[in-house]
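Please go through the protein record below and explain what the tokens say about the fold. Record follows.
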Amino acid sequence: MFLHIGSEIMVSADDIISIYDMEIFSEGDNQNFLKELQAERKITVVDKKVKAKSLVLTNDKAYLSPISATTLKNRSDSPYEGNLLIAK
């Protein structure tokens, strides 16, 4: 199964470790974690025109998505995404 995380980017659900709301990265250790990912160049910004609402962490990298963590979670629970059938 693949999860559409914004723009034209799809990520294999098998590769997703977790999905976070961006608000948790505003301070402390979480902010340091985000800075470390940025320093290691392991972050892909899905849509540079829109503020990121979630961070999708995969086996290889992280994605800053303009789609909320709640919406991404709901999409991952559904076999359909609009008119697009998500194959398993």
About this structure: The longest strand covers residues 16-21. The mean pLDDT is 86. The radius of gyration is 13 Å. Helices lie at 28-39, 69-77.
